[in-house]
Design brief:
This is Alkaline phosphatase family protein. The protein has 548 residues and is an alpha/beta fold. Helices cover 33% and strands 16% of the residues. It has 17 helices and 22 strands. The strands form seven sheets. It has a seven-stranded mixed β-sheet with strand order 2-20-8-1-7-5-6, sandwiched between helices. A four-stranded antiparallel β-sheet has the order 13-14-16-15, with helices on one face. The chain has a three-stranded mixed β-sheet with strand order 17-10-18. Helix 8 packs antiparallel against helix 9. The longest helix is centred in the middle third of the chain and has 26 residues.
Length: 548
């Protein structure tokens, strides 16, 4: 069935972490195109999900299903105590462009997170966040064609930290989208910008750079609109962003105080995630491409660091851990200076860590927003018998609900069993206990630091309210978007094509578009998983503070 009419019917612009509280701080003339969409259409806050993080939230948005169905809960996917960075093969449900393909519509998708490696559909896809540099695109060979057409294209900013690095990334997204829209003549377009989030992790409170990024994004949206003149336009974000007003809660220190977490100093324990900061692939290129002198220098440095790691690890087992050294350096004002000079792998080798096999419960990753029980029969070295699971979990939930911040206020808005938050066949992959910080004003940490509370590692954090705006021929701007959620975007976009939503979608068509019902779609049968074998992805997540 060919339902194509030769024009772009609907375009979605995704702005990671965009929200009205950020946009309202920008000068009036900074984002004229975005403001025109708000003024001529309809807009409102868009309620995100728990956890409100990029790799889980965007799949929820583009599948219309909660993580219990699509299966991505965090930046990492765990198998026992082992982990891997998530990618598109971890998503168990179809994105909207694949559903549109089934109804004869063609799509161009650029920079949407967690889309690598891509699957086949009618159209083109350039993967975004969580993909390696120079990713495989759809169709195969498209990346080389794209670079020939528009010049260098990077999934991540160039790492210089300069404003120009961010804006260059923004410009390349727009150039790629316009080229592919002309090349493939799509019915549907999806163009995402990630650096609207990245800047708050890289350069918090740098409003000059934040403004420059939003100006660049606004320009690219205007150029995209001029190039493809879509009938309908959506602007969406996966979550909001705002300053932290609370404290850092170190869940594993809290659990250690109860006797639930056991720790080990040096050697094995919590995965040494941040050692990728010092990887030979940090710059994005293989060391064999470096000049011989630089290769020799790196080999000498690697030998030196391994020797130092062994020394520090031995010292840690004797009680002189990185945390104790860090506390001493903080008292004399040298902690940050030394941290910059010493390789992260060396620091980690002497760090007190969670001893997973010998612990009752633990936080694996701070961005999972919860606690995992070490269950017999599920974890490789479980210690909690299945018959005691509910008793142990209920006790932990009760204890966590009683936690107060140092000022005496409740730390958590909610502490819930996972089945109260997620629904679907992938729920078993979630944490056992979900933690929702009050207003997301508190920073969760999985690191062992010797105290339960501290100053937040980052001054900004994700918030639950993103934004949604829409205008166009299929949009009734007289109707309210109040109550819109992340899960409503997919069925609403499908409705602009008169395509029924998947019956299993958790979201519903927003009132601004006429719904066309639901239907059953065949099981996607996504059973193959691949690993993200690229150190630059892990390094980027570490540098942004997502992996501790």
């Amino acid at each position: 069935m060919d339902t194509r009419d030769g024009g772009v019917r609907t375009v979605v612009f995704g702005l990671d972490a965009a929200c009205h509280s950020v946009l309202d701080r920008l000068p009036e003339d900074a984002v004229p195109t975005l403001r025109s969409v708000f003024e001529t259409g309809v807009d409102a806050p868009l309620t995100s999900q728990v956890p409100p993080w990029t790799p889980s939230a965007w799949p929820s948005l583009y599948t219309g299903m909660n993580p219990g169905k699509h299966g991505i809960f965090d930046f990492l996917s765990f198998d026992g105590y082992e982990w891997d960075v998530v990618n598109a093969t971890h998503c168990r449900e179809r994105p909207i462009w694949e559903l549109l393909d089934r109804h004869g519509f063609r799509s161009v998708v650029v920079n949407v997170p967690v889309t690598h490696p891509p699957t086949a559909f009618d159209g083109a896809l350039v993967p975004g966040y969580m993909a390696p540099e120079s990713p495989t695109c759809h169709p195969v060979g498209l990346f080389d064609e794209l670079e020939d057409a528009i010049g260098s294209y990077r999934v991540y900013p160039d790492g210089s930290g300069d404003e120009s690095g961010y804006t260059a990334a923004v410009s390349s997204r727009g150039a790629a989208f316009r080229y592919l829209a002309d090349r493939f003549d799509p019915d549907f377009g999806f163009l995402q910008f990630q650096v609207t989030d990245t800047v708050f992790h890289d350069r918090p409170d740098d409003w000059e750079t934040i403004e420059a990024i939003y100006r660049a994004v606004d320009t690219e949206i205007q150029l995209a609109l001029a190039a493809c003149d879509p009938d309908n336009v959506f602007v969406v974000s996966d979550h909001g962003m705002g300053p932290l007003a609370g404290v850092e809660f170190r869940a594993n220190d809290f659990l250690a105080g109860r006797g639930d977490v056991r720790t080990v100093a040096g050697g094995d324990g919590m995965p040494t995630w941040s050692t990728v900061r010092d990887s030979e692939l940090k710059s994005g290129g293989d060391a064999i491409d470096l000049p011989r002198r630089e290769q020799a220098t790196r080999r000498v440095a690697a030998v030196r660091d391994r020797a130092l790691e062994a020394t520090v690890s031995t010292a840690a087992r004797l009680g002189l851990t990185s945390q104790r050294i860090g506390h001493a350096l903080e008292r004399v004002g040298l902690a940050e200076t030394v941290a910059r000079a010493v390789p992260t792998s060396v620091i980690r080798s002497g760090t007190e860590r969670v001893d997973f096999p010998n612990s009752v419960a633990y936080m694996r990753s701070r961005t999972e927003c919860g606690i995992r029980l070490n269950l017999v029969g599920r974890e490789p070295d479980g210690v909690v018998p299945p018959a005691e699971y509910e008793v142990v979990r209920s006790g932990l939930i009760a204890a966590l609900r009683e936690v107060e911040s140092p000022d005496g206020a409740s730390l958590f808005e909610a502490v819930l069993p996972r089945e109260a938050v997620f629904e679907g066949p992938q729920t078993e992959r979630a944490v056992d206990i979900v933690l929702v910080p009050a207003g997301f004003e508190h920073f969760l940490s999985a690191a062992i630091r010797g105290s339960v509370f501290g100053r937040p590692t980052e001054p900004w954090n994700h918030k639950m309210d993103g934004l949604v705006a829409a205008r166009g021929e299929a949009i009734d701007a007289s109707r309210s978007l109040e109550g819109a959620t992340l899960l409503d975007i997919a069925p609403t976009v499908l409705a602009t094509f008169d395509v029924p939503a998947d019956r299993r979608m958790d979201g519903t068509v927003l009132r601004i578009v006429e719904g066309v019902g639901r239907q059953d779609y065949p099981d996607p049968q996504r059973t193959t998983r691949t690993t993200t074998d690229d150190a630059t992805v892990e390094q980027r997540l570490t540098d942004l503070g997502y992996i501790e």
